[in-house]
């Protein structure tokens, strides 16, 4: 598959921090930063940019679905400047609805092809900053305690034995969960995909707001199986919890985490500086420090050896343009609300 070849692309060397360093830090304005990645990564990005640029950062963290809703609600009086992280689908929808603006960063020459394709498909109103495959993780101790079989495929999660043992986020608020919904439709076809979601609903113990919450609950022993991006399961395992990650046997979808400049940004110049800085290899390499195991978009960025190897995962040809479109997202979410979420458990 051509996609897998792109994920294998590597490059040597690193780039300078775009002229920023701590010694030159002088107050130079501010930037309002909306972040849809994990909390510690958001904090790292905010503090790092503030220290190196001298630009004050006001950071607000929320899931990608929530951030999209916020950007849309604020469109007549924008309060955010730059939106970083979270799945690409809501970024694409924001671009389509005119909520973000085009920008061609000077860093583009250093980026993976899949990152640039994401940008081109949206008229350069967003760009890929990382990628990761969808899957799930389970708590090995809780699984054994409940005498449950080890799952290896998506359809394993439909088994009656897992009733009350599976958790995923709500696709209305979570980009991870929307990717799950769109993956099932593409993997099995829409009819069978929705039948799958209905069957899974019977085993769900809770729909969370955040996409990573299900695996965090599993790590604490409060849940057994969490449907998440595989790198989120790896983070819990590396932290020391008895979490095993699974790349489902049928194949799976993936995300292109994205970044966008908000239309009407009050601090657009500062936001563009953040945008360029965030695409640099040294900055993307720091993800390892907060145990973020996504594949970075800068070809020169360091990748942890513990990160999921996407070339070894059976990835579907995920149609970002279609499933990131406003009409398709709204249609699928309404159908999920009407035909799945409304069902008794």
Which helices and strands, and how do they pair?
Elements: H1 2-7, E1 30-35, H2 39-53, E2 56-61, H3 64-73, E3 82-84, H4 88-96, E4 100-101, H5 113-121, E5 127-139, H6 140-145, E6 166-169, H7 175-188, H8 190-201, E7 204-208, H9 213-219, E8 225-229, H10 230-239, E9 243-246, E10 254-262, H11 268-278, H12 281-285, E11 295-296, H13 320-323, H14 326-341
Helix pairs in contact: 3-4, 7-8, 8-14
Protein model, in words:
With 345 residues, the chain is α/β, with parallel strands linked by helices. It folds into two domains: 2-131 and 255-310, D-Maltodextrin-Binding Protein, domain 2 (3-Layer(aba) Sandwich), CATH 3.40.190.10; 133-253 and 329-341, Periplasmic binding protein-like II (D-Maltodextrin-Binding Protein, domain 2, 3-Layer(aba) Sandwich). The protein has helices at residues 2-7, 39-53, 64-73, 88-96, 113-121, 140-145, 175-188, 190-201, 213-219, 230-239, 268-278, 281-285, 320-323, 326-341; strands at 30-35, 56-61, 82-84, 100-101, 127-139, 166-169, 204-208, 225-229, 243-246, 254-262, 295-296. Strands 1, 2, 3, 4, 5, 6, 7, 8, 9, 10 and 11 form an eleven-stranded mixed sheet that branches. The model is unreliable at 1-27 (pLDDT under 50).
